[in-house]
């Protein structure tokens, strides 16, 4: 991914719009040292009907739930965070963009406990295209990671906590060094969990299948969107545990996520998936997903916040 110039961006930090270069914290900030921050990833798109932010209210609710799980007092309510995100998107006028709310302990102490310490909230809207580049259309190659997916006996998998993603980074690095685009994680109980930062779906015999909550997955908002879309357009959907070898024999496999959107997987561990092209069910869901984003579906119009 090419390096971006963020120097002209306007960001929101603790209630104020400031220049990106002026949003500074101490190098010893607790959340940098110990991974104690929480975050969200949200997309905004330019459409024929105006700029929209996708499922903003749901992302803000998950952000606040992450804070609650992690004992963080953000000092801002749902509407305040919601309105701050809208303001940042308007200030920057970028299409398309990726929105990053981030909450962290703004204290430069040494020591694990940040109990009762100040928290800060930062929101940025960044220029952002396809997460996997041309792979979004052509498909990507994935490796089953030797690292297991973290589970809720260790940390909360329901919180988008910065520290959780060390697990993801290790798997992604391992896959990249082996010549793959990304990793697929197996849960501690031996079933398929998710990608490094994506949920996963397979298609077999025209049925859409995705891991259930027993796989210790993060409940992705794009995942939830696709499940709801599938039900409205008559695609059979099943949430259940998935064996690793089911990936190798699936008709179609794809990732979903705010960054990844809908990205087909055409090869796993050297096994070709389907005909190594965008499968018909994946395409049907993808087409409907972008119809909704462009405001062409009244059923899901409440997923769009016009800015």
Structural account:
- The chain has eight helices and 17 strands.
- It has helices at about 30-35, 55-70, 80-90, 135-140, 165-175, 220-230, 245-250, 280-295; strands at about 10-15, 15-20, 40, 40-45, 50-55, 95-105, 120-125, 140-150, 180-185, 190-195, 200-205, 205-210, 235-240, 250-255, 260-270, 270, 305.
- About 25% of the residues lie in helices and about 30% in strands.
- It has about 300 residues and is of the alpha+beta class.
- The longest helix has 15 residues, at about 80-90.
Q: What is the CATH C-level name of the largest domain?
A: Alpha Beta
Task: Identify the quaternary structure here.
Answer: single chain
The CATH topology of the largest domain corresponds to D-amino Acid Aminotransferase, Chain A, domain 2
Shape, per Cα inertia axes: globular
The percentage helix is 25-40%
User: What is the straight-line distance between the termini?
Assistant: 27 Å
Number of helices: 8
Model regions low in confidence, pLDDT < 50 over at least 5 residues: none
Question: What is the averaged pLDDT score?
Answer: 93
How many E-type strands?
17
Number of structural units classed as domains: 2
Rg value: 19 Å
H and E order: EEHEEEHHEEHEHEEEEHEHEEEHE
Structural class, by secondary structure, is: alpha+beta
Largest sheet: 9 strands, mixed
CATH architecture of the largest domain: Alpha-Beta Barrel
The CATH homologous superfamily of the largest domain: D-amino Acid Aminotransferase, subunit A, domain 2
Beta-strand residue fraction: 25-35%
């Amino acid at each position: 991914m090419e390096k971006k110039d963020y120097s002209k961006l306007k960001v929101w930090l603790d209630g104020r719009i400031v220049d990106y270069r002026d949003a500074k914290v101490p190098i010893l900030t607790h959340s940098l040292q110990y991974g104690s921050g929480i975050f969200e990833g949200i997309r905004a798109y330019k459409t024929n009907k105006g700029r929209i932010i996708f499922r903003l209210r749901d992302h803000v609710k998950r952000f606040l739930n992450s804070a609650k799980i992690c004992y963080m007092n953000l000092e801002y309510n749902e509407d305040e965070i919601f309105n701050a995100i809208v303001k940042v998107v308007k200030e920057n006028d970028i299409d398309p963009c990726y929105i990053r709310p981030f909450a962290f302990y703004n204290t430069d102490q040494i020591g694990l406990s940040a109990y009762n310490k100040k928290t800060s909230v930062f929101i940025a809207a960044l220029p952002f295209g396809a997460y996997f580049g041309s792979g979004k259309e052509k498909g990507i190659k994935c490796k089953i990671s030797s690292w297991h997916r973290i589970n809720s006996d260790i940390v909360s998998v329901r919180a988008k906590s910065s520290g959780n993603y060390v697990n993801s980074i290790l798997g992604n690095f391992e896959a990249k060094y082996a010549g793959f685009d990304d990793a697929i994680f197996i849960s501690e109980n031996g079933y398929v969990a998710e990608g490094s930062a994506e949920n996963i779906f397979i298609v077999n015999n025209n049925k859409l299948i995705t891991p259930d909550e027993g796989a210790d997955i993060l409940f992705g908002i794009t995942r939830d969107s696709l499940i709801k879309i599938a039900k409205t357009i008559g695609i059979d959907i099943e949430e259940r545990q998935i064996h690793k070898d089911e990936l190798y024999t699936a008709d179609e496999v794809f990732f979903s996520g705010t960054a990844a959107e809908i990205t087909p997987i055409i090869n796993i561990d050297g096994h070709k998936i389907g005909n190594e092209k965008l499968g018909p069910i994946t395409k049907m869901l993808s087409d409907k997903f972008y119809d909704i984003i462009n405001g062409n579906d009244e059923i899901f119009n409440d997923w769009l916040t016009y800015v």
